[in-house]
Design brief:
Blueprint: H1 5-12, E1 16-25, E2 30-33, E3 39-46, E4 49-53, E5 60-62, E6 67-70, E7 76-79, E8 87-88, H2 89-92, E9 100-103, E10 109-117, H3 124-127, E11 133-136, H4 144-158, H5 164-186, H6 194-198, H7 204-212, H8 220-226, H9 231-242, H10 246-264, H11 269-275, H12 281-292, H13 296-305, H14 308-311
Parallel strand pairs: 1-9, 2-8
Antiparallel strand pairs: 1-10, 2-7, 3-6, 3-10, 4-5, 4-7, 6-11
Helix pairs in contact: 4-5, 8-9, 10-13, 11-12
């Protein structure tokens, strides 16, 4: 099976899309949402409105079928009229078990939303490469699959079918993946990083090789040959696209795998090091300490005790 680094990273960060609720609105309305501590997800099922993010000069028009992600920690307003005093979202959705709100007497606008949960220890691997806003318009040529998923999600949310809950969760997860695919396909100048590297046809095959066997002693020369480049050209291209040299990327990926394994598994440190290409436990421990700031065994103890943030 061909290695899929994109899936590897989504699994590593344990990205889970959760549909948390929505609202219907009619007439003139506006809602202020506090700065999110998670990646926020919205889909406009019906109508149109404006999105205004704190600190941004111009609001964004959102139409029926549009989907967007907000990853920056800034408050924002959704509304038909941004001049009116907005309602406070926490108050609007307050109440035990309340997930949907109604504003006004009509349903000119219908919205569903949620958030994307990421692993608290390694979630930055994904969060740090996302732009502040990803807005996928329904009219986009790349959005047809996303529109089909949205239609199915709406159907599941409105039905009493068996398994509607799990079906909705899976559809939301697929929507998140498709949003990232569209972003990757449509963006002309992505910042250097693994997401840009995955979309680079010259470099992506080398990433797939490293992800397929992270414990192998890959060399720059071998990776360059795999993509039919000279060593120098490959090294320069890889760093320009991925932001780091090839073997630094490999080291970083090994350490992210190690962090997750130390937290979630009981694999002995020596065995974990061997699986990642280190010839001894001390060699692995030294590499891990240089990268993470503490020895693997201490990291495991601290992260399982839930005190990693305060200890680091």
């Amino acid at each position: 099976m061909i290695s899929d680094p994109f899936s590897d990273i989504l699994k590593l960060v344990n990205a889970q899309t959760v549909i948390s609720g929505g609202f219907t609105a009619g007439g003139r309305w506006a809602i202020r949402f506090p700065a999110p501590d998670k990646i926020k997800f919205f889909a406009l099922v019906k109508g149109c409105c404006w999105l205004s993010i704190e600190g941004r000069a111009a609001p964004v028009r959102v139409e029926t079928g549009d989907v967007f992600l907000i990853s920056e920690q800034r408050s924002f307003i959704l509304g038909s009229d941004l001049e009116m005093v907005p309602l406070d979202a926490p108050r609007l959705f307050s109440g035990a078990g309340r997930k949907f709100a109604k504003i006004g007497d009509s349903e000119d606008c219908i919205q569903i939303g949620g958030h994307v949960r990421l692993d608290p220890s390694v979630g930055r691997v994904l969060a740090d490469v996302l732009p502040p806003l990803i807005h996928v318009r329904a009219a986009s040529p790349e959005a047809s699959v996303l529109q089909w998923l949205l239609d199915q999600l709406i159907h599941e949310q409105a039905s009493d079918l068996l398994g509607a809950g799990i079906a909705s969760a899976q559809l939301a997860q697929l929507m998140f993946v498709q949003i990232l695919r569209v972003y990757l396909a449509e963006s002309k100048e992505l910042p250097a990083g693994w997401l840009r590297a995955l979309g680079d046809t010259d470099i992506a095959p080398a990433l797939r090789l490293m992800h397929s066997d992270p414990g192998r002693a890959w060399g720059v020369e071998e990776l360059a040959r795999s993509v039919a480049m000279s060593r120098t050209t490959f090294a320069e291209r890889f760093k320009a696209v991925a932001g780091v040299p090839p073997l630094t990327y490999l080291l970083n990926w090994r350490m992210r795998i190690a962090e997750r394994a130390l937290r979630d598994e009981d694999t002995p440190v020596s065995d974990l090091g061997m699986s990642l290409g280190y010839t001894s436990e001390s060699a692995f421990s030294n590499a891990f300490k240089r990268e993470v700031g503490m020895a693997p065994k201490r990291y495991r103890d601290i992260v399982r005790a839930g005190t990693l943030q305060s200890a680091s």
